[in-house]
Amino acid sequence: MDQGVIRSLKCHYRKQLIFRILECYDKNKDCDISLLDAVVLLEKSGRLVRESTIRNWFSHVGLTKTQQTEDDGEEDDNVSLSKWLEKHGVNPFSQNEIEHFECCDDAVITSGEVSEEDIVALVNEKNNSIVDSSSDMEEEQDKTRFFNCRCKSSYKRFEQFFATENFDEYVVDLFKIVDKKSDELCIKSKTFQPKTLFSM
Questions:
Q1: What is residue 62's DSSP assignment?
Q2: Which domain of life is it from (predicted)?
Q3: pLDDT computed for residue 132 by the predictor
Q4: pTM of the model
Q5: H-type helices in the chain, by residue range?
């Protein structure tokens, strides 16, 4: 196998393993990983390897069709419009027209005049609303973090159940999508750092 696929698989496996260890650490439990857990982590890591990495491996080994015959007829389709116009000697705009379009709105007023008092009032109003909403945000983050981690632990039970029974692949794939989304939400909730505001 190409080293890119192996490297990507190992990277995703380590990430899943560290995530599992951190979950156990957050719950103040010992992290015991069984052979089944390792296989599940490996399978999940395999799903996370990008399609482009696998495609590059196939082309590196030489297991793909040569695309030269297909690309010959589509040569003009893959070229940007400006390059195509240059190639065919078409110049749709003169330099004067281009310069006119570039600076036609330089004199346009985009905002009104604001006094210093207005700016200070807006900043103070914004700071007051941020300080008031920071405690609400912390409560909401705690609820979200609790829900995401609880969803993750429920999925693990289903995962063990799926490993022991035969199920339709469609059902298993749907639960894998749910697992991926819960991973993203759990990581996002743990890595979010609220802003620290200092009022003067």
A1: T
A2: Eukaryota
A3: 59
A4: 0.42
A5: 3-26, 35-48, 51-61, 68-73, 81-87, 95-102, 116-164, 169-191
Other CB atoms within 10 Å distance of the CB of residue 42: 14
Q: What does the chain come to in residues?
A: 200
Give CA separation, 46 vs 39, 41, 43, 51, 65, in Å. Answer: 10, 9, 5, 11, 25
Contacts of 118 (CB under 8 A, 6+ apart): none
Q: Which of 84, 18, 100, 8 is nearest to 49 (CA)?
A: 8
Angle formed by the axes of helices 3-26 and 51-61, nearest 10°: 150
pLDDT at 79: 63
Distance CA 86, CA 92 (A): 10
Count CB-CB contacts under 10 A for residue 170: 7
Best-predicted range by mean pLDDT (33-42, 130-139, 164-173, 180-189)? 33-42
Instruction: Quote the Cα angle for 175-177-181, to 5°.
Output: 115
In eight-state DSSP terms, residue 76 is G
Secondary structure class of 31 (helix, strand, coil): coil
DSSP state for residue 78 in the 8-state scheme? G
Tell me how far CA of residue 58 lies from CA of 43, 44, 55, 61, 166, in angstroms: 20, 21, 5, 5, 32
Q: Read off the tokens for 53.
A: 């990495």
